[in-house]
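Side project, low priority. Logging it here so it doesn't get lost.
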Amino acid sequence: MRLRILAFLVTIMSLFSALEALTRIVDINGTGQYSSIQAAINVSSPGDTVLVYPGRYIENVIIQTSSISLISQEALTNNLGYIDSTIIDGNQQSTSLRVTQNTQYVLVRGFSITNGKSTGGGGGLGLSTNSSSTIINCKIFGNKAKNGGGVIGLSCSVNLSGVEIYDNYAQSGGGLYINAYNPPTQFTFDMVNRCSIYNNKAGYAQDLFVHYYNSDLSVYLDLFSISIGSTYYAVFNNRPNQNFHLFLNVLQAHHQETNSDMYVSPDGSDANDGLSPGTALKTIHTAVYRIASDSLNQKSVYILPGTYSRTINQQSFPIAMKSWVKIKGSGIDNTQIIGEPDPAFTNQQLMVFASYYQNNISLEDMSITTVNSTNSCALYGYREDHVNLKNLRMYDLSPNDCAVIHITYAENCLWDGLILENFTTQRMGYLACQGQFTGVIKNSVFRNALSTYISPDVWAYPLIWISAGAYLRIENTVFSNITMLDDDSQAIAFGSESVPNYTPHYEVSNCLFVNITCNERAVLLQGNNYPVIDITNCTFAGQSGYGHSLMVNGSVTVSNCIFYNDRPREIAINPMDTSGELTTITIDYSLIKDGYNGIFQAPGNTINYLPTNINTNPLFAGGDLTNPLYYSLADNSPCINTGTLDTLGLNLPPYDLAGNWRVWNGRIDMGSYEYGSEPWVDIDDPVMPSIPAITLTNYPNPFNPTTIIKYSLDEPGAVSLEIYNIKGQLVKTLIQGNADKGVHSVVWDGIDQVGNPCSSGVYFYKLRTNSRTLVRKMLMLK
């Protein structure tokens, strides 16, 4: 080791042999020539060495002269103790140490670099574009930044030897962030005097993030967070059409992940093991960090009832998600996540949950909102497979630069039971799925959103924007009270602008698009390569603006739908000027305001308007305009029993938008509601969460053997509460009678109807009232 160090010093000194090099002594105690590091650097010339004596130097050092050596006494003595005693402290003001753009041949050796902060990149050490540096035997810890909490390298050349990067925090790349956007970039890790990168924290890429590196990268480490690299800890993000790789060579792991479920409680402690509710952890990030990814047996982080925020119980955001890990709350009404920015980054974008290159992730059963942020996002994801979201309420966020849910390149997703509501944005929408999203969105509500963006030159982002891939299905979902102020805008856009190598298939079934205000089309459903689009049993009503209610292209079928809006036209064909693809649209068993004249036909396209359609007032039930049931059918509606006779090919769910039987009295109705139908009885009934005044939850869940079932009613009346097993068999009736308006609770002790104890497993509890049926799932563990 000493021979290598001496050889390196000889090499460095030889570069400056033609110069009159000086050694400038820095001592905070006043025995040297300078008392601050920056003062010595400011007067240094190429070839000079700045030798720093022990002490805590509270300053933000900037090196902008090439061929400078900044060393502690460790470089002269090989005494590693000088690293701990010679400290550059950024005092949370800026980057602790920065090498500026185009500065070459800088040596930094033998320091502790800490307490730095950057709203951009590199809280501890920042290495700028076209610089070259050698960093030896330094400890970089306790720093914060948006990118690269410990170190950031931007299109530069760096040799790292014996550097420890740990306990840093960032939005991405908690330890080290390498951005090679302008090649060549060269990072070299010493194979003998190895570096260590471990126990850093980030929204994604806990320890190492490598962006657009222009070759394979080998990283030789003594200590890494875990022994085998994963995309939770290290991400290598290629340019499009590149396939370079990151090779981690690790000698030892900092910690062993726990292959077991974990629990988090507002009253927990991160000193606990987290393996039971009684020994719960305090922070969600710690639970995800500790839990193992197990593709054979997915594990869960159970978030117990309570409120979780930075000020209440020291949560840190973003909370990084991990492959094959489910983050599961105790219900929308019981688990509340309040995203709150770190005081160091109050003006930065706030992400509550984040996922980058993670597969088979799940987020369930909680409410998510933010405070003290004007630019917030509930979930940010990139290049995922199987992103599963269930029973989530996201509300009162400010999605300006990033949507409330912002997913790019996600496939095979299942989103069930989402409520996104109460947003005002100045730029971005509140749902953005870009990069050929595929999957199913069902039983959800998107409501009460306003885009205040106005521009005379460019169009506004849609409030709901899904750039779909090969397949997209949306069913039993409400889109209501959505307003765009820009004069060149569309509120909702589904489909892909790029040309795929397949024929896309998009399905919209049992959906409600109402009270949408914008000056272009309200809903755009389109794609290239002649997509197949099926729109079935949907209601488009109460919309206003200058454009159309719906614009489509491809091979389009509209069946059993209602279009009744205050717009010039109900349906328009996208002319597809770029590709020249023509559209064939077939409309049957639907109510179209103004009939055939309510459809805009671009030249050359085909409209098959069948005689089964009607043109009249649909006669909605009315009532409270904000209640989706306003658009159910009145007793004398002409849409009752006038849908298609053959429903087998419509791929409909068995229930309508209200959770009632989809087909009733032997004939289906037009629109998203079935008139006079009774509640659809099934233990898996995914009842719409559109009227949150009636709620149903239980705690604890999982339980052994007792749990408390809590429900609330918005009006007095008849109520029943029943327990079913996974086979759909009735286990026990807990309540059968009348109940007052308000919150009620009942204890189930795990005993069946005849007094026998029930076995471990999944059970369903069903609440029925005069107006609704709710079903929830619970797990008994013995």
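Brief comment: The first strand starts at residue 23 and ends at 26.
Revisit when time allows.
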